[in-house]
Amino acid sequence: MTKPVPADVVSRIQAVLGAGGWSQDPDVLAPHLVEWRGRWRGETPLLVTPRTTAEVAAVVGICAAEGVAITPQGGNTGLVAGQIPHGEILLSTQKLKAVRDVDPLDDAMVLEAGVTLYEAHQQAAKVGRRFTVGVASEGSCTIGGLISTNAGGTAVLRYGMMREQVLGIEAVLPNGEIWNGLKRLRKDNTGYDLKQLLIGAEGTLGIVTAASLKLHAPLASRAVAIVGLASPADAIQLLARAKDETGGAVEAFELMSLLGFALTVRNVPGLRDPLPSEHPWYVLIEIASGEPGAAEAALERLLAKALEDGLIADAAVAQTETQEKQFWHIREGHSAGQKPEGAVWKHDVSVPVSKIPAFIERADAALEQAFPGVRIIAFGHVGDGNVHYDVLKPVGGDDDAHDAQRQAGAKIVHDITASFSGSISAEHGLGAMKTAEALTYKDPIEVAALRAIRQAIDPQRIMNPRVLF
Amino acid sequence: MTKPVPADVVSRIQAVLGAGGWSQDPDVLAPHLVEWRGRWRGETPLLVTPRTTAEVAAVVGICAAEGVAITPQGGNTGLVAGQIPHGEILLSTQKLKAVRDVDPLDDAMVLEAGVTLYEAHQQAAKVGRRFTVGVASEGSCTIGGLISTNAGGTAVLRYGMMREQVLGIEAVLPNGEIWNGLKRLRKDNTGYDLKQLLIGAEGTLGIVTAASLKLHAPLASRAVAIVGLASPADAIQLLARAKDETGGAVEAFELMSLLGFALTVRNVPGLRDPLPSEHPWYVLIEIASGEPGAAEAALERLLAKALEDGLIADAAVAQTETQEKQFWHIREGHSAGQKPEGAVWKHDVSVPVSKIPAFIERADAALEQAFPGVRIIAFGHVGDGNVHYDVLKPVGGDDDAHDAQRQAGAKIVHDITASFSGSISAEHGLGAMKTAEALTYKDPIEVAALRAIRQAIDPQRIMNPRVLF
């Protein structure tokens, strides 16, 4: 627990923000103090909801002068307890909602931190452009949070992480100064790229208040298929072929194991298996191209050749937009699909793409040995090497007993991940949940450098002090 | 000038490296001590040419212990005097030549710092992949230098800068420790992304010894045209249409003014104007697609519609690969083409794409007023907002007189660049040449943060001490 915030600091901040800029009402605070799955709960002496960058700076300035800690919060969709305060001032960016500019000639839009991802997609669409980051929580998650956690999602394979979508940042630094780095340049080699540090910093180096983001051109053709195949190794080969065949126009490539696929089709209302028989593994593949008809043609060529060569066992190509959505719903329904099965350990790991088959094989074997009967659901963005590796309790097993083994299971999965030079947090970040564990895997030379940087930018460690190193 | 290096430090480094690892022979040193255009010359008490990362670490370790400064050098193709020592130890990475791995399943290759860009392209091609960074000095420039200067080039529009091609870095930090950050992950959210700091740091935060780089799929179709049109504003509209028409498959979009175009066609042997009459402005456009035939089709559609609408005046589509190369040669021959015209001021600026027409108009007018008769050649990667804005002496003018006004001219161009929120060094970096000037344009809040970071990583300021802030 962070040291108590002095009462006069609270009242000074209240005075600066005025009515509507803060709250201590338990009903207002409640949704901000609990992680959305209910796994973490926190507390704060004061929720502040600044409406402008200047108000953010005023709050941070007071806190900096008094050495008072702040937890920043975006859409509160984080999964690793980075956004839940434990006694700090809670600064929500949700009222920073201005759309400052959307310019299709620059292929850039400038949005404030509290704009949701869904709204960002809409703003881009209004000018005939796309914003390419896609995550399931798009209705709640916000630009500030997406940047501060370097969000991933299903489109990383083609477009990269959130990091690669950011042209510029405006942020309030830990000393309360406003850094206006809101450039919209594609090229600017005039010193270290400061914004890269704030991206993925989980609020520890300042509070992102606005960003200049890349827009992309619309695509004229799109084709989606569900493929049944024998193994992750075959899936990796199919991915390489798909890139070759389409010149990198693979929009998504999602691997699913039979168990997750079957549970989702069974448990999520309205879904059905598009293939007539079961397969050990499935891939959802989406091709998208700027050329009319090209995506469909490339997907047909790819699948026909793969069937002929025996690389895949079966495939269904979506014939309508409704069917495309159905296919995607199977992939996106994986969390809902396994929910009725009870307690589960989730892991968000990445390894080099070529190591995915070996990783799954080794992790499956180690878990089966340590925890006989557990049911493993491997799925995820295999084109990025990102496996969401979920471990369900044995059939008929006890939820609490399974929950009690969560750390032991994670250690096995993460040790194997590390043995493949992988990451124990591919896209969710470290927050307060994974920081200690990450330290056991990170290169100490790197950690020393990261700590030195944090110390240089936030010498009092007032910004989200409980997260990262 | 940096303080003299003690003789015992020199001899200790010599002992560690052994024969073949260092030189004080003036003939060996000579090409390392002069910038390739002859604009800067330097000196060093010792050239070291380590053959392994461990040898780099040994040299840096000795220097760190004694507070002795180092200038790192890659292929010595830099344009801003970042690689020329002034009394420091000169550390060349040219002997770090190993190709550690090239893996098409991971779409990654791990190359040491001294591998040239040309060799990198060849390594990628061997496994049926592409490495997408392209700059004119590809035969000399090296991976370490490309990373340390965050190189740009003609393919940034579609693929991004060097920064976006780097998956991981191995580097010797200023304390002499080896940081092994050679991951090949597409997703890794476990703390600040340290490699981003070293990219573009111009050797001030450590010496990049190897890197893990992204590979891209080959493209099945390609089409190149030279277009004649009336204005930069029309060119920007054409770019927007090209992105729309091709779904972002624009591989290059290079603007050229009549003067530069005509001088190049006239002065470079073997070139001829592909269009029957002159136009105020030209664009070289290249479309490339993963779908066979798609690039040609999209380019034809784009140009036909643009001609019909009067957006462009004329266009020639390359019919053969030889003709494609000819078209590109006109663009790449711009420096050679203007050389016979005598003294020139060069500027490497960027502005938001939509501001290019206004930038050119305002800069042209200001220069004509301040220096009547100067001849302006604007060209460059307009899809990135990157204008290479060259100013030739007046016809019959005196070279020395023009050279003497270089700074005054730069001030005008850079002030106007800054008024459009642009960058005074889009892709060449700051080196020792532009650092002081950059300080007059950079946000002091940002500069303070960058200095704090440098101080944190290199408290003795021994790494390339004369460059950056």
From TrEMBL, chains A, B:
<dbReference type="GO" id="GO:0022904">
    <property type="term" value="P:respiratory electron transport chain"/>
</dbReference>
<keyword id="KW-0285">Flavoprotein</keyword>
<dbReference type="InterPro" id="IPR006094">
    <property type="entry name" value="Oxid_FAD_bind_N"/>
</dbReference>
<dbReference type="InterPro" id="IPR036318">
    <property type="entry name" value="FAD-bd_PCMH-like_sf"/>
</dbReference>
<keyword id="KW-0274">FAD</keyword>
<dbReference type="InterPro" id="IPR016164">
    <property type="entry name" value="FAD-linked_Oxase-like_C"/>
</dbReference>
<dbReference type="InterPro" id="IPR004113">
    <property type="entry name" value="FAD-bd_oxidored_4_C"/>
</dbReference>
<dbReference type="InterPro" id="IPR016169">
    <property type="entry name" value="FAD-bd_PCMH_sub2"/>
</dbReference>
<dbReference type="InterPro" id="IPR016171">
    <property type="entry name" value="Vanillyl_alc_oxidase_C-sub2"/>
</dbReference>
<dbReference type="InterPro" id="IPR016167">
    <property type="entry name" value="FAD-bd_PCMH_sub1"/>
</dbReference>
<comment type="similarity">
    <text>Belongs to the FAD-binding oxidoreductase/transferase type 4 family.</text>
</comment>
<dbReference type="GO" id="GO:0003824">
    <property type="term" value="F:catalytic activity"/>
</dbReference>
<dbReference type="InterPro" id="IPR051264">
    <property type="entry name" value="FAD-oxidored/transferase_4"/>
</dbReference>
<feature type="domain" description="FAD-binding PCMH-type">
    <location>
        <begin position="40"/>
        <end position="218"/>
    </location>
</feature>
<dbReference type="GO" id="GO:0071949">
    <property type="term" value="F:FAD binding"/>
</dbReference>
<dbReference type="Pfam" id="PF02913">
    <property type="entry name" value="FAD-oxidase_C"/>
</dbReference>
<dbReference type="InterPro" id="IPR016166">
    <property type="entry name" value="FAD-bd_PCMH"/>
</dbReference>
<protein>
    <submittedName>
        <fullName>4-phosphoerythronate dehydrogenase (FAD-dependent)</fullName>
    </submittedName>
</protein>
<dbReference type="Pfam" id="PF01565">
    <property type="entry name" value="FAD_binding_4"/>
</dbReference>
